[in-house]
Amino acid sequence: MDVKDFVVIIILFIFADLLFYVVVMKGLMVKSIRGKSHADEVRDQPAREDGPAFSAQLRHHDPEPRLSAVSSLHGNLAHALQDSALIMRRELGHLDLEDVRFIAPRDLMVGEPARLELALAQNIVSPITRALNQAAPAKVTTLKIGAHLTALLSGDGFRITPLAASEQGLAAPEAQWAWEVVPLKAGRRALALDLDLSLKIPSSEETLHFAWPECSVQVEPNAYFVLKSFLQRHWKGSLASAGLLAAGLYLWLRG
Questions:
Q1: At what angle are helices 223-233 and 235-254 packed, to 10 degrees?
Q2: I need a surface site. Which of 52, 76, 82, 247 has the fewest CB within 10 A?
Q3: Whole-number average pLDDT of the chain
Q4: How far is Cα 212 from Cα 217, in angstroms, rounded to an integer?
C-alpha cells in the first residue's frame, strides 16, 4: 500500500465517521449522558420562573340571590331531574373565562423541546352544585355534578406531546396542564389552545367551548437539526451520494 492509498483510506474514514456522528451518535450520546429522552427531561423540568405560558380563571357569576326552593320542582324524581337539567343549562350562562394571559416562551429554536404549561383557577363546582340542590326538594336527592375540562394545544410547524392528561376533573380550585413543544419550522408561528368544559348530572350533560386568543411565538432556525432531519429522511440517498463522492475522490487521488 503506497502513501496515496493510505491518505484515501484516512479521508474516507474521517468522512464516514463525521456522517455517522451527525446522524446517529450525537443523539445517542446526549441520551446516554442525560439518561433521559427529551420528553422525560422536559417533564421533570421545574415550572418557569416567570409563570406558566398560559393562565386564566374560569369564574361563575351569580346575578341574583338563590331561593331556598323553587316552586316548579314538585313531583317525582324524574320530573325533578328534568328541571335540574334546565337549571344546569341556565348556569352555563353564568360562566366566563377571565384574565386570559399568554407569556411567549423565550429562546424557542427549531428541534429543541420546550415545556409549556396552562394554569387554570376556577370556582364553578360549588355554586352550580348549590344552585341545583337549593332548587331540588330535600326529600328527592342531593345532586352532585361532574365537572371536567379538556385542554388541547395545537400549532402548525410544531410537534406537541401532552405531559399530563388532556382531560382533568375540576374538584380542586386549581388545575394544571403541560406539553412538550418541539418547533419544526423557523419564523413567526401561531399556537392554538382549545378548552372544552363538560358538566354532567344524572339526567344531562352540557358542554361549553372556550377558544383561546391566537398566540404568536418566534422560532429561531437550527441548522444542525435541519441537516440531521434531512439525513434521517434521506439516509439511503445520502449514503449513495457519499459512496459516489468517495469513489470519485479515490479515483482522482489514484490518478
A1: 90
A2: 76
A3: 75
A4: 15
* Cell, residue 239: 449514503
- Which residues, 6+ apart, have CB-to-CB distance to 30 below 8 Å? none
How many Å apart are CA 93 and CA 19, to the nearest integer?
61
User: Which phi and psi (to 5°) does residue 157 adopt?
Assistant: 90, 15
- Residue whose entry in the numeric block shows the C-alpha cell 406558566: 52
Mean pLDDT computed over 168-183: 93
> Phi and psi for 10 in degrees, rounded to 5?
-65, -45
Alpha-helical regions (H) of the chain: 3-20, 26-34, 38-43, 77-92, 125-135, 223-233, 235-254
Instruction: Name the nearest CA neighbour of 96 among 197, 216, 176.
Output: 197
Q: Which are the contacts of 236, defined by CB distance < 8 A and separation ≥ 6?
A: none
What letter represents residue 251's amino acid? L
Kindly state the average pLDDT of the residues 22-41.
48
On whether the CB atoms of residues 198 and 213 are closer than 8 A, the answer is no
Q: What is the pTM of this model?
A: 0.66
Angstrom distance (rounded) from CA 80 to CA 140 = 8
pLDDT of residue 20: 59
Exposure string for 173-184, b = 16+ CB within 10 A, e = fewer = eebbbbbbbbbb
How far apart are alpha carbons 15 and 121 in whole angstroms? Answer: 56
One-letter amino acid at 205 equals: E
Hey, is 17 helix, strand or coil?
A: helix
- Classify each residue of 138-154 as buried b or exposed e, where b means 16 or more C-beta atoms within 10 Å of its C-beta: eebeebebebbbbbebe
Q: From CA 11, how far away is CA 17, in angstroms rounded?
A: 10
